[in-house]
């Protein structure tokens, strides 16, 4: 407390006392607040000029911790919103049922519960993923709910296996409508049915243009081998192996045929749909975690559960949370999207397709290191490219 | 080097520091976290004491905001960063003050907070925080650019940390009289430069 005998400090003295930290500023007193602002900015500048007191390892741990909290909060705020919507929904449903019951009794109109209504209700409690069956000659489709996810390389998650590629940045939020996706990559048997029905000639077969394979004499080099195509990709395949040596055009033609054959709208997945499906709701580099694991994918080499030097039969590895198999590894998969160098380019899809003849492929193949099979990993290939590591899977639009 | 290019360089460094944390590159954000930690510790040291846990919470909340908004930062990166950490600090102090507030019944028996003699100011706690900081940053950038700027800034930063004139004189190799003169002119200097630059 100030001594009554001491003279009041001048405004200048008070200003200096606050700047030097000897006095506390008083709220609402302009000169005090100005002095405190000067003090704070000087302290801030000084903090910026000193050397680091935190190590990169500590910073990385701190990042993981805070990013986790941020995501949990985001999730819980979404859940709260969803909860409110569900409550409102139940309220409206209750009101509707009451009104219906009242009308039924009032007018005595006979009412029956239609099969559709029963199915509609039971659908809510039925398991989302139907049981797996071995692939037959038409793709087995699984319905994926609409949702949003972070597409691209999220620092601290996707880059835990030696980093990401430039083309995976920046990570950004994407909304995806509900759609159905093939449980497996399109198999030899499925492609065969299409070829037999249409007498289609693939890019590799046309005038023996061939398929790209690694040069046995020099394994780092690739050659176009005229004698190889989807029927004979240079290694043995059974009917349930994923078809390879198919170009984007071949894949596109297959989806058109499948649409006509079934009366439903099939196509190649967009990159966003593909990544959404591959992640299965996970932010980690792979749907099973941050590290490579041969329990889940057919990648380069043979070890543990991964006993295939080339393609593995479809569905040999555990499915992801959406029930999809081989979203990592086995064969690269074509997508519908034209290639863009990274996600910061704000170019309309039509303009993008006019600029280049490349399409994005995803998922990595049997000859790749695990990092190439990450959910965010992407790579370009020309619409006419075909190789023995490149196949596809289809999606179906939902009404 | 011109004032504009120096400011741009400073801004680029700040953005790089932010992105190293957000994208987990380079030192993975160690420099950014060091700056924030030092500032929070300095604040907590004298006037606005907070526990180590509270300081850690401020750092965490600041980092979460950085992760959320770092890519949308426009303008003065350092001023933005300061606004974030400063607001977090003040929020935490207000929460503590609200908890510690003393209530007494009034004439009608309603509990009301006891009026305090003076309420400590949370300068730079309003909506205009960013603009104020941006302005003061420009002021001190300008001071630092003058021929004696480096020493002047050293004197000022020693001063805000509570060093006496004699200690500052020893630290900077100037006389006590010279230090007193520089400090007594600081207020006027800041005021004038604010008129010119902001």
Describe the biggest sheet of chain B? 2 strands, antiparallel
CATH level 3 topology of the largest domain in chain A: paralog of FGE (formylglycine-generating enzyme)
Chain pair with largest interface: A-B, 54 and 56 residues
Fraction of residues in β-strands of chain B: under 5%
Structural class of chain B: mainly alpha
Q: Round the mean pLDDT of chain B to the nearest integer and report it.
A: 81
Strand content of chain A: 5-15%
Question: H/E element string of chain B?
Answer: HHHHEEHHHHH
Number of helices of chain B: 9
Radius of gyration of chain B: 20 Å
Helix fraction of chain B, binned, reads 55-70%
The CATH superfamily of the largest domain in chain A appears as: paralog of FGE (formylglycine-generating enzyme)
Number of DSSP strands of chain A? 12
Can you describe this structure in just a few lines?
The complex is a heterodimer of chains A (399) and B (198). Chain A has eight helices and twelve strands.
